[in-house]
Amino acid sequence: MEEDRVEGSIEHSEEFVNECTPCIGMEFESEDVAYRFYCEYGRILGFCVRKDYISKSKTDGVTINRKFVCSKEGVKRVDKRTQTTSIGRLETRTNCKAFLYISLDRASLKWTVKRIDETHNHLLHILETVHMMRNQRGLTESLGITVEIAEATGLPLKLSHNLISAQSGGKENVGFMREDIKSYLRAKRGRDLQYGEAGALLRYFQKQTIDNPYFFHGMQLDVDEMITNIFWVDHEMIRDYGLFGDTLSFDTTFRTNKEFRPLAIFIGFNHFCMTVIFGVALMYDERIPSFVWLFKKNLEAMSGKKPFTFFTDQDQAMANAISQVMPVVKHRLCTFHINQNAMKHLGYLYGKESTFGSDFNACMFLYEDKKELEEAWKSLLESYNLKDNEWMNKTWELRRKWAHVYMKLSYNAGMRNTQLSESLNAKLKKPLKSNLHLDQVLTQLDKVVFDKPYNEKEAAHGSREKMVRLKYPSCPMLLHVSKLYTPPIFDLFHKELDIFLGCKVIQ
């Protein structure tokens, strides 16, 4: 049946083949024109063309002879590496003898067909599949730009190929296959790194600085002048930090790049209770000197402005760096991580019948008086026989950083943990893969950072499009603050007012 389809395809193109069939004496303006002609002939007939023989003049080195062959010409060489393999690669060559031989006519400067063989010893491709032949595929400049944009936005290779195929009316009309996208992006990657990864990073930062004079970046080098830590902020991060940087959440995440460098992000809340990014860093390690350098760079970028409250997990290196760089800043610990560590060290106490988890959380969130907290903690230790537990004793020493009775005395914008960082890290895991180089990580992060300001614009539009609901429409205070606050902040105020009105004063 396949042979019948081949014959049908050839008959369908018989007229075109007759007009474009090469013959002895046919002339071409250049070698490249002859090659393109033979490739088009191969496309219609159903075979792929490969450049083979070339000879040059011994007097002036000018190419005078050229031979184009079928891609199935010759046989595969014996590979010693596969002699012990039971199943090797499938054969692709059949020692096909079809070829086109052309020579340069010095007098007319034209290329003339001298010899030709049209005999193929294999099945020819049908018209429906000729677009898959190697020398019939290739990305145009415009499609290359489309592929680059798709990659920059994090679109998977398969989806980007399907999108272009749908726009072109089918995969057979695209002109390239998915493997060609890989090759194109690989070649682009090689061009970008022709001066090394450090050079690629420098060019990226130079471009950002040209586009935005307020862009700030810093790179720390080791004794061998190799890049260790990288930190950068753009003008919108600086602006947001000036407005909302009183409370920060800081955390690191792993497996976002090929070098397995920790990715560190400074984030916080804005007036729509949305996550805003204040700064991004790729770190060499998580030791105290690295964090000290990073925190100093952050202060340098933000004109020395320090936050009031700084949330981290229970990493001791972070804590030591904060005490060195920002000793007056209130360092608070993430209550979520404290709970996770409690389960790690005291997991045997989290049984179905045990109330340890709720009692432990009560110490963190419920008590308003220091004496009540001390009594509750003492009771907790006695009830679960934890007086000599090292982790519990160390956690109690840090109570000023996690207990509500102490935390309520400092401004924290409603933040009690680094869940903002955890949530953002979870979103970053999808576009940031462990096979990305550092400059690719920066490109992918650009998209995430770019989305944040746009999300704020959407929220601003929604706040003007939809009016807030007033439980007490005639209340002058509510009417006034509804014009000042964003909807999320107004809802918080409304809830506090409800609690206040629900209180009963006892004299």
Describe the model.
- The chain has 507 residues and is α+β, with helices and mostly antiparallel strands.
- Helices cover 45% and strands 15% of the residues.
- The chain has 19 helices and 12 strands.
- It has helices spanning 2-12, 14-20, 31-45, 141-152, 157-168, 178-192, 196-211, 235-244, 288-301, 316-325, 335-345, 356-365, 370-383, 390-397, 404-407, 419-428, 438-465, 476-482, 487-501; strands spanning 27-28, 49-56, 63-70, 99-105, 110-117, 216-221, 227-233, 247-253, 263-269, 275-282, 309-312, 330-333.
- It has a 7-stranded mixed beta sheet, with helices on both faces. A 5-stranded antiparallel beta sheet has the order 1-5-4-3-2, covered by helices on one side.
- The chain is elongated, with a radius of gyration of 35 Å.
- The model is unreliable at 1-10 (pLDDT under 50).
Features:
five-stranded antiparallel sheet, seven-stranded mixed sheet, elongated, disordered N terminus
Overall mean pLDDT: 82
* Class by SSE composition: alpha+beta
Q: Tell me the Rg in angstroms.
A: 35 Å
Largest β-sheet summary: 7 strands, mixed
Instruction: Report strand order across the widest sheet.
Output: 6-7-10-9-8-11-12
Q: Outline, from the CA principal axes?
A: elongated
pLDDT < 50 stretches: 1-10
How many separate helices? 19
How many beta-strand runs? 12
Strand residue percentage: 5-15%
Helical amount among residues, as a percent range?
Answer: 40-55%
Distance between the amino and carboxyl termini: 100 Å
